[in-house]
Structure formats: C-alpha cells, structure tokens
Design a protein that fits this description.
Number of helices of chain A: 3
Helix content of chain A: 40-55%
Number of helices of chain B: 14
Largest sheet of chain B: 10 strands, mixed
Helix content of chain B: 25-40%
CATH superfamily of chain A: ACP-like
Distance between the termini of chain A: 7 Å
Radius of gyration of chain B: 20 Å
Oligomer: heterodimer
Distance between the termini of chain B: 20 Å
Shape of chain A: globular
CATH topology of chain B: Peroxisomal Thiolase, Chain A, domain 1
Order of helices and strands of chain A: HHH
Number of domains of chain B: 1
Chain lengths: ~80, ~400
C-alpha cells in the first residue's frame, strides 16, 4: 500500500464523513485544532480507515494521532 | 398558581413542515400517507402504508451536533430550531438554569439500531462499531442531543412512553413551570419511520393492510371499514413559558395550557381500558377546574384499531356525552407514535386560532359499537376557546391535555 493511496483515502473520509473542507486538508493540519474534530471523531476516523484499508488500527490508536502527517505515518507502520 | 403559555412552535409532519402548511393541508383534507414499496423486502409482512415527512435537509443541523443523532433526533432538532426562532428567546434565556427540556420518542433511531446491533449479534464482536450508533439509538437520544446542541443547563426529563411520549413531555413542561421548577420549557417528541415500527404492530394484528393501493383511504378512525393503524413519522416542539414573563417580553402567545393529567390503567399491557381513559380525562378537567361542557373540541387518540377506537369512544361519552365535536386527525397522516401528542396538540392550537374543527378523514360510517359522539364528518368552524387532546400508550399509560385561547 502506498502513501498516496493512504493519503487519498484519508482525504476522502475527512471530506465525506467529517465534512471537512478540502482546502483545510494540508499536511500539517491538526485534527483537533484545525479541523474541528474531537476524541470521538478520532475513534470513528480510526474505525473508518481500518475498514477502508483493511489494516490493523485499534481504538487506542486514536489517542496517538494529532496531525494528518502523524496519522499517515502511523498507518504506514501497520501496512 | 403560575400560568403556562405556548410561545413557539416547530413541526415536521406528513402533512406539512410548519404550522401554516399543516393548517392548509388539514383544511384541504390532504393525506400524508403513502405506499411504501420498499417494505416488500420483508417476508410475510403485509402493510405497505406509512405517513412520511418530506424533509431531509440534515445539514441545517451542525455536524458536531448531528453526528450523534439518527433521523428521530434530527427531525426533533429541526423543530426545536424552528420553535426557538419562533419564540425569539435569547441565548441567555435558552441556557438559563431555569430553562429545561422534556422530549421523548418510542424508540431511538431504528435505523442506527438495526445497522449496529444486527452486525454485533451476528458476528459476536464490537470491532468495527463506531462511537455514535448507541447515541443515535439510546432511549433518550432526542432529549440528550437537543440538550447538548442548544446548551440547555436546566432540567432535562426524557419522556419515553411510546404513544404518549410527546404529550407527556408537554405535561412535564407544564407542571415544571406551573409548580415553579422552571420558567421556560422546550417540550415535544419525535419518531422516525421504519418497517420495524409497523412490524411490531403487524405481529399484534393491528396494522392496516387492505388499503395498500389506496393509501389516502387509511387509517379510518371510528369507521366500520377500519382495519388497523398506519405508522408514521414526524416531530414537534413547543416552547412553554410562564405567562407573566411571556407577556412582559411581548411574546406571541399561541394559547395557554390549563389542564393536564397522566394516569395508568393498571390492567393489561396492550388492551386499552375505557375506565383508564375516562379517568385521565376527568383528572385533566379537574386540573383545569372546568366542567366538560366548556371543551369545544376533542382531538381523539383513535388510531383506527378495532378495540382502541371503541374503548375511547365510550370513555369520551361517559365524560362528555354526545355534544362535543370530536375527531382523530390520524386519518390525515397516520400514527406518529412518539410524535403524535405534540403534533396533535399543535392541531389543537390551530383549532383555537382559526376555529377549525377538523373532520375525521376517512370516516364514512361510524362503527355501531362505538358510542354516539358528535363525530366530525366534515370540517366545521366554531368559536370555542378550549380544546382537549388525548393520547394513550402501551402499558396503559394515558395523558390528557387541555389548551385555552388566551384572552387578547
């Protein structure tokens, strides 16, 4: 699985499920400070990415993510 | 004793999505009941009729508030938005500790329940479940979500008693203000359409199945050709305020709640009790300190089931005799379950405002086992100033509300 595919999937989920504006999805964006998400959103983001990519993400991973870059890095360690 | 008035209204119903639309559709005798072909995917399930709300502008509710709501709470939140705007209350008034809410529904979101529980039961795992499903289908989802969305700080009393949910919520709001616990109460209820709602009634042989191709001809409260109830969806909110405060701020006043009662049959879990229905009407009249002859219109619960309509007609006759105009407005839109009490109360307010005594839609020939009441076969107009709204639920839970036109 490539970084490009993970990035595209994350972008799609953020836009469709969390109604984030496309131009807000930039590499350093913080989920909580910049994208108006919270801890429950983080859990649901993990669940959705897990289903979309078929990777092994756990609910506790939600506590580790802060920015889009960090989250993509985390996913790449699991593929 | 503190007086309680209604200063804001919001409604989503199969007959219209605001009070004016609802009024016009009633006057035009329209039907909100439609044929639902998609229900044919369920085996051995025969009803195909349902009252549906034509509204899905979900994005009017902000995402952070909406994510924990199913359709049942989203519709209620929309009516709350409309009612708050209608009442013209400030944010400070809404979040005052003496402003509370009471909302109910029979079920949380059936759709969320099916999506979530079905998978968990089959696969025996919670992995893959999101954090929002439970918040969408829990019993008090409407009250909880509205409280969070509107930053309610006062009392929150969910009223989840099936078909009396929203009439009970109105009663709770009325008593909260009357007895000094709150100054403002947002009250109402909701239900979303789902084949499950119809299915549970079909198991009990209580749904309409003979009018699937002519949905506008069912349900038929009190009629000899009635064949059961028609489930429906919808929501409504009333803003209740203490009268002197409402008057002081120059609020528009739709009417006053002068009486309310809730009481139990204490008998069968589903079979309606005429004695229980009679009791709750008498208790509400006592609370209002009026005699039965002062009531100019009764909005009956009558759902078009064989037993319920008969029992209610005899209870009503025992209290009122045969001179008080009565109709069940379920013939126009079906049975909104948790939403029926508030929507039918709003119809009562329309009656006070316009004088309309709405006809029993689809009533052609009264079942001869029903008591001899003044059934409205056509619309009439009166100059009455008091109406009663009755609702009855599984568990033998009964409510009766009495509304009065406010003197100018």
């Amino acid at each position: 699985m490539t970084v490009e595919r993970v990035t595209a999937t994350l972008k799609e989920v953020l836009i469709e499920e969390f109604e984030v504006e496309e131009d807000e999805i930039v590499s350093g964006a913080n989920f909580f400070e910049d994208l108006d998400m919270d801890s429950l959103d983080a859990i649901d983001l993990i669940v959705m990415m897990d289903k979309k990519l078929g990777i092994d993400l756990k609910a506790e991973d939600a506590q580790k993510i802060r920015t889009i870059d960090e989250f993509i890095d985390l996913i790449m360690t699991r593929v | 004793m503190r007086r309680v008035v209604i200063t804001g209204v919001g409604v989503l119903s199969p007959l219209g999505n605001d009070m004016q639309e609802l009024q016009e559709a009633l006057v035009a005798s329209k039907s909100g009941v439609v044929h639902v072909e998609s229900w044919s995917e369920y085996k051995d399930f025969n009803t195909r009729v349902c009252g549906l709300v034509n509204w899905d502008a979900y994005k009017e509710i902000p995402r952070k508030s909406r994510r924990s709501m199913g359709r049942v709470a989203i519709m209620a939140a929309k009516t709350m938005m409309d009612a708050v705007k209608d009442a013209g209350l400030s944010e400070e008034q809404i979040s005052n500790p003496r402003t509370g809410i009471s909302f109910g529904s029979t079920m949380g979101s059936d759709e969320a329940l099916f999506d979530s529980i079905g998978t968990i039961a089959k696969e025996k795992t919670f992995i893959g479940q999101n954090s929002m499903s439970f918040l969408q289908f829990m019993s008090h989802t409407v009250a909880a979500n509205i409280a969070a969305m509107f930053k309610i700080r006062g009392r929150n009393i969910p009223a989840c008693s099936a078909c009396t949910s929203s009439s009970m919520a109105i009663g709770i709001g009325y008593e909260s203000i009357k007895y000094g616990m709150s100054d403002v109460m947002f009250v109402g209820g909701s239900e979303e359409a789902h084949p499950y709602n119809a299915g549970i009634f079909e198991i009990m042989a209580a749904t309409s199945t003979r009018y699937n191709d002519t949905p506008e001809q069912t349900p038929r409260p009190f009629d000899t050709e009635r064949d059961g109830l028609v489930t429906a969806e919808g929501a409504g909110t009333l803003v209740l305020e203490e009268y002197e405060a409402a008057k002081a701020r120059g609020a528009k006043i739709y009417g006053e709640i002068i009486g309310y009662a809730t009481s139990c049959d204490g008998e069968h879990i589903t079979t309606p009790s005429s004695a229980g229905m009679e009791q709750v009407m008498r208790l509400a009249l006592d609370d209002a300190q009026i005699t039965p002859d002062k009531v100019g219109y009764i909005n009956a619960h009558a759902t078009s089931t064989p037993k319920g309509d008969i029992a209610e007609s005899h209870a009503t006759y025992a209290v009122f005799g045969d001179k008080t105009p009565i109709s069940s407005t379920k013939g126009y839109m079906g049975h909104l379950l948790g939403g029926c009490g508030v929507v039918e109360s709003i119809i009562g307010l329309i009656s006070l405002k316009t004088g309309l005594l709405p006809a029993n839609k689809n009533l052609v020939k009264v079942d001869e086992t029903c008591a001899p009441l003044d059934y409205l076969f056509e619309h009439r107009y009166g100059n009455h100033d008091i109406v009663m709204n009755n609702n009855f639920a599984f568990g033998g839970i009964n409510t009766s509300l009495i509304f009065k036109k406010i003197e100018e």
